[in-house]
Structures are given as structure tokens and as C-alpha cells.
Specification:
Layout: E1 11-15, E2 19-23, E3 26-30, H1 32-42, E4 46-54, H2 57-68, E5 76-79, E6 85-92, E7 95-100, H3 111-119, E8 125-129, H4 136-148, E9 154-157, H5 167-176, E10 179-183, H6 184-194, H7 202-213, E11 217-221, E12 227-231, E13 236-239, H8 253-267, H9 271-285, H10 300-306
Parallel strand pairs: 1-4, 1-8, 2-6, 4-5, 8-9, 9-10, 10-11
Antiparallel strand pairs: 2-3, 6-7, 11-12, 12-13
Helix pairs in contact: 1-8, 3-4, 5-6, 6-7, 8-9
């Protein structure tokens, strides 16, 4: 993976939503930035999550969990009006569906506090997505973080959750990104959203995105079929699907993939190896309920194997 970094990351800023996924049988802490941060912490990096919660029981649940995982809470803001974010998760024959509630605390991340948190860190990478940009307040907070974290590389994890995105949000996010992660469906939607010519071949879309937005790489996840990557040099890396995967649910599998991608990219692993390891980790996550494991023992086989 092309990168100017010559050592693993020590500090990573993750911006966006911290929330609870409300399942039929209970609530678990989630949100893509939190999930990725949790995995990075387990893999020995130092993630700093910048988000906002309500002053409620779900905030206490989040802080308690982060303390248990020895994660930094320095970037967690508290809102006295809006609640901690919630996503209602339902299961059906075709997998899980989400209902993302509006007007949540993560929509109102304070720009000044975000700038203060970012300026106190020398990050090796900044991770951000699209969901937390649905409100202009949090969009302004992200701009402060990006300004105060230059020249750190940025990984954009696109999540097109209707109706919580606009073409302008997507295009602006791509302008500020160096690396972009999407799934197959999101990739095919990007030409129309960004004003590019209509294209049907995934590699053609990725190549045009690299050129239009001066990206370093486009990473495309394909669910059970694996993943592929196109980088600025024109090199293509690919990993296939994994057989005999035990699936309890797929919530957070993509976040696990993102975490290992970050770990591998900043550790200098070859591209094919990054994809292989990220895919294996994501597949294993599908065997547990929710996005993150209850015990740090879950990570030990991967850490031992990757030394």
C-alpha cells in the first residue's frame, strides 16, 4: 500500500457517530467510528474518537465500555438537549435492516471543541464517514478536524444510508479524502452522485474516482465475495470470499474490515495481505452478535498470527 508513513500509527482520529444499535433483545454500543476505534485499540493503536452523546443512560453505557477497553474518552462531548444516537435493528429473511433516528447528539458535534481535541493530537490518520455529516453543525466540526490534522492521510468510509446523505456531502467528502472505502452498491451509485459520466464497470468507476479526486486508493468490499482495491499506480489487489462462514449477523463487519485495513496500511503490509487479513477478520466478526466482541480474547488469534 503506497504511504509516506514508515511506522505503525500511534494516534488515529475517528470522527462521527457514537450510538447504540437497538436490537429486539437489547441495545449494544455501535456506530462505525466507535466500532473501528474499538478494534484499533485492541490491535495496539491509540484511537481518539471525536463525537457527541446525550446526557443519558446510553452515554454512561458508552463511557463505561470505553473505560473497560482502555479507550480514550477525551473526544466525547456531552449534549444536554439531544439524546445519544440510536439505530433500531430488525432481522428478516434478507438480513438486517436499520432505522437511523434523526436529531441525535452526534448531529451537533461542537466545532470548537472538535478543533481543540484535534489540535492536541498528532494523528497518523483521520477516519471519517458520511452519516455524521447530515447536519451542518457536525460538518463544520469535521472541517475543523481536517484543518487541524494536516497533513495526515484521510480515510473516507462512505455509508449511503437514505435519506441521510446528499450529492454535495459525498462530493465534498471525496475532495478531502486520500483513501476511500465503499461497498459494491455504493460504488455504482457514485458516478451519479458526483456528477461523473455514467459507468457500469466497477474498475472504470474506481479509476475515474482516483483521477477526479486525486485519491491514493479506492477499496471496494463485496460482502461474501471478498474485496478488491485499485491504487493510484493502477495496481489491483483482490481477495476472494471465505467459505463456511458462521453468520450470526453482519452488523459491523465492514467496520472490522476498515480497522484491519488501517492497521495494515499504516504497518506497511502488502495490499493483497491487507485485504486477506481484513476479510478474514470481518468474516469472523459475523459469527458474533453485534459489531464488537465482549472480550479482548477475540483478537488474540489475529494478533498472534499477524506478528
Amino acid at each position: 500500500m503506497p504511504t509516506d508513513l514508515d511506522k505503525p500509527a500511534k494516534n488515529i482520529i475517528l470522527f462521527g457517530e457514537a450510538l447504540v444499535d437497538v436490537f429486539p433483545d437489547g441495545a449494544v454500543v455501535g456506530g462505525a467510528p466507535f466500532n473501528v476505534a474499538r478494534h484499533l485499540q485492541a490491535f495496539g493503536l491509540h484511537p481518539v474518537l471525536i463525537t457527541r452523546t446525550g446526557n443519558d443512560r446510553y452515554r454512561h453505557k458508552l463511557i463505561q465500555l470505553m473505560d473497560a477497553f482502555a479507550m480514550s474518552t477525551s473526544g466525547i462531548q456531552c449534549d444536554t438537549h439531544y439524546p445519544t444516537g440510536q439505530v433500531r435493528v430488525e432481522f428478516g429473511e434478507n438480513g438486517h435492516t436499520f432505522e437511523i433516528l434523526p436529531e441525535q447528539a452526534y448531529d451537533f458535534i461542537d466545532p470548537a471543541a472538535a478543533a481543540e481535541a484535534a489540535s492536541s493530537i498528532q494523528p497518523d490518520l483521520v477516519y471519517f464517514g458520511t452519516l455524521a455529516q447530515r447536519n451542518e453543525t457536525s460538518r463544520a466540526a469535521l472541517q475543523e478536524i481536517l484543518h487541524h490534522s494536516r497533513p495526515s492521510p484521510r480515510l473516507l468510509d462512505i455509508n449511503l444510508r437514505e435519506p441521510w446523505y446528499t450529492p454535495q456531502i459525498v462530493r465534498d467528502s471525496l475532495i478531502h479524502a486520500d483513501y476511500v472505502k465503499v461497498n459494491e452498491d455504493e460504488l455504482t451509485a457514485l458516478p451519479e452522485l458526483t456528477g461523473l459520466p455514467a459507468m457500469h464497470d466497477g474498475r472504470d468507476i474506481a479509476q475515474r474516482l482516483l483521477e477526479e479526486f486525486q485519491l491514493q486508493a479506492v477499496l471496494v468490499t463485496c460482502g461474501g465475495e471478498g474485496a478488491w482495491l485499485l491504487d493510484r499506480s493502477g495496481a489491483v489487489a483482490h481477495t476472494g470470499g471465505i467459505e463456511n462462514v458462521s453468520i450470526k449477523d453482519t452488523v459491523g463487519a465492514g467496520d472490522g474490515f476498515s480497522a484491519v485495513f488501517i492497521l495494515g496500511m499504516l504497518s506497511g503490509w502488502p495490499e493483497e495481505l491487507i485485504l486477506e487479513r481484513a476479510n478474514q477478520f470481518a468474516a469472523t466478526l459475523c459469527g458474533i452478535r453485534g459489531a464488537i466482541p465482549d472480550s479482548s480474547e477475540f483478537y488474540k488469534p489475529f494478533i498472534d498470527a499477524w506478528k
